[in-house]
Design a protein that fits this description.
With 115 residues, the protein is an alpha+beta fold. The chain has a single domain, classed as Gamma-B Crystallin, domain 1, CATH 2.60.20. The chain is 23% helix and 27% strand. The radius of gyration is 16 Å and the shape is globular. Keywords: Signal.
Length: 115
């Protein structure tokens, strides 16, 4: 009985974990991100870089934010330790991010890592 319960719980959790895919999208401004969440024709998209057109973020790999980036959106896709850093190549002051994806002003941050 315990085994059946465990399998049932695991089967219920798998779709929720696999439903979200890791994302790291970069935008020039927060306004560009707001415009991106409203359906627009592809030629008017204001996203600088998107993980949907490149490979999604990989656990443990550092990603430098583009110098033109003013805001970025992340979704951990089940990874539980998203971090931003004030220096390039994940150096400098490290700050934690929420595991719930959202858009964030770049501010002083220059790189991102999640694992």
């Amino acid at each position: 009985m315990k085994c059946q319960t465990l399998l049932l719980v695991a089967a219920a959790l798998v779709p929720s974990v696999l439903a979200d895919k890791p994302k790291l999208n970069q935008y020039r401004t927060m306004d560009d991100w707001y415009a991106a969440i409203i359906p627009l024709p592809p030629q008017t998209s204001r996203c600088l870089q998107t993980s949907s057109t490149t490979l999604p973020p990989v656990s443990g790999r550092c990603y430098n934010l583009d110098d033109a980036t003013g805001a970025f959106f992340w979704n951990t896709g089940g990874m539980l330790n998203p971090r931003v850093y004030t220096g390039k190549n994940c150096h400098g002051t490290e700050d934690p991010l929420s595991t719930r994806g959202r858009c964030y002003n770049k501010g002083v941050y220059r790189s991102y890592k999640c694992w």
